[in-house]
Amino acid sequence: MDYSLTYRTRWADMDPNGHMRHSAYADYAADQRVAALARWGYGVARFAQLRLGPILFREETRFLKEVGIGEEIRVDGRLVSMSTDGTRWTVLHALYKADGRVAATVTVDGAWLDLERRKLTVPPADLVAAFAALPPYEADGK
Q: What InterPro entries does this protein's entry cite (predicted)?
């Protein structure tokens, strides 16, 4: 399965300096994550049915190259770590320019929340397996 999506940056993504605003990087990473969940059968309706939701504890962005309006970017997600039961996880998203250079990385630490109890919970086994199947993050960036 391909874990990347391609986007074209929009006017709304830009800041007054003419390059992509800081929060747009996180927005593209989140969209890629949500799209992957939906491909695994965990769209908004399924999460609502299960009374389960993903939450973030930390989100960190490293800016490496400027991205301008109308540029094509590719965003992927790689598994950095996951607890044995799948409750907690860390995913690193890389945002690539069209020439393949990494423009930014967005690292998120997350978990699964039982929406009724408002406590962390173990997700369904198939969701744990889907996360575990993400390509692993390798320190050399590949």
A: 4-hydroxybenzoyl-CoA_TE, HotDog_dom_sf
- In terms of Cα–Cα distance, which of 80, 90, 102, 78 is closest to 4? 78
* Structure confidence at residue 138 as a pLDDT band (50, 70, 90): confident
Task: Give the pair of three-digit tokens for residue 22.
Answer: 């800081």
The CA-CA-CA angle for residues 12, 47, 134, to 5°, reads 75
pTM over 0.90: yes
Are 51 and 114 a contacting pair, CB within 8 Å?
yes
- Enumerate the H helices of 12-141 as residue ranges: 22-39, 44-50, 125-132
Q: Residue 108: which of 97, 93, 95 has the closest Cα?
A: 93
Length of the chain: 142
Map out the domains of the chain as residue ranges.
4-132
At 35-84, the pLDDT tens digits run 999 999 999 999 999 999 999 999 999 999 999 999 999 999 999 999 99
